Amino acid sequence: MDPIQVLTHALSLPADSPEQSALFSQLREHLESQPASIPVLCTTLLANVVSPKDSAFKLWLIDLLQFALSRSSLPVDTKALLAFQTVEPLYALMNDATPTTTKVAIQCFASAYPHLFRYLCDNRHNSSAWEVMCRAKDRILALVDSSRAPMGVQLAAIKFMQRIILVQSRGISDPRLQNKSDPNVSMCPPNHPFMNARQLEEEGTARLQQMVGMLYNSQNPDILTVVLNCFVVLVKLRPALVQLMVTAMASWTPTRLSNSSAPVIKSVEKAARIVMVHIMRHGYGGQYQTEITQALAAQQARMDEAAREEQARRVDASRKRALPDPGADPSISKKAKTEIGITAVAPPLAEQSLLASFDFTTLPLGLVTDLVIANLLAIDQANLNAAVTAYRQNHSSAVATTTTDPSSSVQSTSVLRTVPPIKVREEILDPLKVELDEDEIEYEPEKLNSNMEGDGEGDEPAGEEENDLIPLQQVDFELPPARPLSEDERGAVIKSAINRLRLQADGSSRPDDPGEADAPADGSQALVRLPASEAWVLFMVRMTTRGPAAEVPTGAEASSVVLMPGQDIRQTLCDYVLDDFAARSRLATIWMNEEWYNDVVRREQDPYWQPQYDIWVQKLLIAQKEKLDAKDKAFSRFLVDLPSLPPNLLSLLRDLCLDPEIMPVGFTSFRELVTLRPPVRTEAMQILLDLTTHPDKVIRGAAIITVRRWVPDQQPMDQSIRTYARGMLRRLATKPSPATATDVADEVRETVSVSSYLPADLDLPASKAVVLQHVELLLGLAVKLPEFLDQIFNTYGQTDPSVQDALKSLIVPLIKTLGSNNPKLLDLLRTFPPDAESLALRILGLLTENARPTPALVSLTKDLIAERDLDPGFLVIVIPEMDKADILKHLPRLVTTLDGTPEKHERVRKVFSNVVSESPSGKSSNMPRARQSERLAPAELMVMLHEQEKEIGLKGVIEAIGICFAMPDVFRSETLGVVMQQIMDEPTLPKLFMRTVIQAVTTYKNLVSFVTTTLFSRLIVKKIWTNGPLWDGFMRCAKVTAPSSFGALLQLPKDQLREVVDKQPSLRSGLRDYVIKKERSKPKLASFLETLGDGGEVMTPGEAPSGTLTPVPPPIASAVSPSA
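^ that's the sequence the OP posted. Answer follows.
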């Protein structure tokens, strides 16, 4: 879907039409899943909807913006930029007359404020956006206490105030727990041009006090509920406010809600209770647990008292209901009751239909009880007795018609059994509507009995009636015993019951189970927390396990296996459980407990009893193992609840851990067993620790995550894990410890851990993967416990170089996680052992790789450099933080590390680029830069390299000068000219000076004139030929700069000039031509030519050779030396 195209089509439809709304809904769903286009749409279109007219598009766009700023998956930087770009249109929407638009705009501001705050902390040149946000903030906060604002707008303003409190307060001080996505006032720099951190924090404190005051002063339950919800977020993100929140809620009472109804007060009380319970359960309360507990107890007592008062009020109100009019003629109602009995007072048909269709079983039991008691208390006692008597009389007359012969109790009983009962229409009565006579108030059991005994002999003497009843009361009836069932019959009954229960569970049919009539109507669980159907299964399990014992064979048969009764029933039950193990795992647990208990009892009675528990638990485990999936949780619960763990259980769980598809089930089961089953804790822990060294990264990672849960608080698992991790690290130590003698070696040997996935002896050179198997557990623990770094540093020097290289690579994620402010890491870097110097240097490099070193790191490194003779690489961290004098002092030592390797070459180049006064254009460096006033001029660096060539070494200086020439934007031609001039001013020239000059004129041709005139002349004055290496460099430079150097060469003495042309023959012809063209004096010309080796006579052009030696310019071909 193309969002732009769909939006264009939607806008082309009639405004607010159903078709347009449907397209907006489809586009919203698409943008929620792919929100990348939201910023473009919102920033482009939001300004177009700032108008007093409401439309579907306007509401859709504002709601989309609120989604983008709050719940979308957009990056934090994108949200911050979006908040910055939309703050002004949102402020304009605050003027909208529609409460819905105003409310959504406030919600957008609540989401945008943290992002905009973070954005403006880094971008200090956008004060206009902050001014708009401050105006919006003042307007929104004014709505919090406004009595004219709509409730929805006011509640949104309170949520906005919560964001103000969060942003304008200080976050968690512990750097390990800080959340970078939680903006707070600590992010605001103290020198910010338009955001005053102190004022913002004071405002946040004032708003917090205002919110707490609302808890005590507000009479609106909705506002109180929102304030309480805000407290939850404040406690979670600002632990420093816990004491204030707990104190406020503990001392709060609903006195301001005295005019509200009881349910409203109860609702607010429950909201406050939920907040306090949440604080206590999630550990936010800390030291205030006692205060919270006392507050909850006091609140519970207050709620109970309010409930009793409300109940008494309702009872009192019901008693004041008006009774029927005493002046009415009762004869009409009496006549109606005489004719039609109890149905005369039946409710109207509409009311009967309504009551018949209502499901009273859905009402809570407590509510039903309260209603019944309230209605009974509302009825006068005399009226109630009369209603009960009338009901019994009417119903007894119907029963009496079923009796035919009262002379014999046996016949009467048989008749009652054979005659079908007469169906009496049941009517729903309201006792308050029943009018009773004084005759009906008296309770007459004898009259009722006589009505039930006969239908036409009611005038029989009372004595005869009593004689007829006496034999019936003295009958001693005894139920005949049931027919005993055979073993096969009992098995068939149980199988049939199980099959019917299985059908019921599958929903295919409902068994005709008489026990279900007694099941609770509300679905409550009865026997051992099982539903009725599974309780019947438990009943059958007990019949199977605790039935009659098998006959014990004697004699020779005593050694044979006893066949147990009910094995086929157990198999049926096993199949029933395995059909849906997740739903029937509780039943399986109870079954296994029954089997185990039965085995214990039977073993005491029968020494030849064959235990059934081990057989069936193994069958369940093996069968369920084949059906497991990664999300199965019932399996681990079943294992934990077993009364006795089978011997091969741990090996079975180990196999589960090695299966990638069901690995989570194995590790979850191990975790539960270690935590809840101490007898197998040691063995299970050993298996888990062994898996932390598995070659497969996924299995190893899962094992490490499992055991890391118990560090550092849960004993004894914590100590076992620490010991194993240290022992695995010691396996890497292949060199003897320099500490002491054999005692230490014996101690180390005893504490070395063993793994079934690693060889007994480490093969060297060790691969990075093998080293990771040894140390990944320890590195994972070091994230939570940085003191494990001590073990790494102490062992590092005793390891092979291949292991050291692997450790320096594997430690990278850990160091980046700990960060440069971790106190343990800083302390360790200050005191690391000498043989771990390269590891410490690697850690310092990681801490300063992408950020400027912290003051603590700089101070630490300077102290180390002053106290120890460390690798010059430590200077890389602190040289940019030194002053110019220290830079010149320590930089030569860093240059000495150059050995031609690319790594060191790049390291020195970065240092050069950060200590010189100009940055290379087009290149960037993550290294920190020195202060501008303390940085070196490029010429100073080049001169220093030449002056320190003895201390550094010629090779190092040559490579360093090459680095300088590779930075043409810094070391320009004019810079090199200054360098050469300054070096020429020195009394003694460096050996590499002429090499640098040659490199300069080769790189920058515009320096040739300067070198061949000014520089060569000064070198001749300094008698450059007296220094052999420099003289050789001078001659090579003259060759490179020819013919510009010819003029300077002619300034040399004759002997030096002759040496030049002898050692650089290619210069001879050029010099001869130059002399012939330039020199007009024949004597001088002859002298130069003689010096150049061409004789002392000069031949003018056009003259033929004579007896004199007149130099004639040779052909061009002959002027080129073969060596040239």
